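Entry details:
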Amino acid sequence: MKTYLNGRLVIFSAFYDDVYCDRIFRKLYNQIKWLDKTYQNADGSIVHLPRLTANYGERSYNYSGMVFEPEPWTDVMLELKKDAEILGQETFNAAVLQLYRDGKDRVNWHSDDDPCVGKNPTIVSISFGETREFWFKAKNGMGNPLKLLVEKGDVIVMQGTLQHTHLHRVPPENEKKARINITFRNVIH
C-alpha cells in the first residue's frame, strides 16, 4: 500500500493477481453494456466521448452534461463492489465503468466533486487490462503534477478533500491495448 497527497490517495498495488485480472477483464469486456456516447462541444460540433462508458448500480450518475441511467448490478460487479467497500470503508450504490479501447482513448482533467457524491466523497477505482498513466494536479496550480502508473489489479482509493483540491486525468498514450476502469461511488442525490 502506498499513500500520496497527505493520505487522501491510497494505492493497493496488485490487489488482484494476473489470473483473476485476466478473467474479470474478459467478463467485463464481453458482458457490460458499453455505450458510445456523444456530446456537443463548445463550438456546437458533436463529438464522441473518447472512451466507452457504462453505469451500473442503483443510482444514475451525471457527468459532462450527460445522464447515465444504471444497469442492474451483475455478479462480477457485486463481487468487486464488496472489495471496494472494504478498502474504501464506504457503502457504494453506483459504479461508472470506462473502457479505454487503446492509447488514444482518454479522460481529460476533471474532479469527481459533483454535489451528487457529497462533500468529501470516497471513490474507489479498480483497473483491469493495460497499464496506463494516471495524473493528479492541484486545482490552485501549485506544484508539479503527480504522475502514476496504474497496472491491472491495482485499486486506488481517493478520499477526503481530494476531489475539491485536485484534478485527475488519464492522458492519451501511444501503442496501448484495452483497459477497463471501474469507479465505485455513493450517489446521494
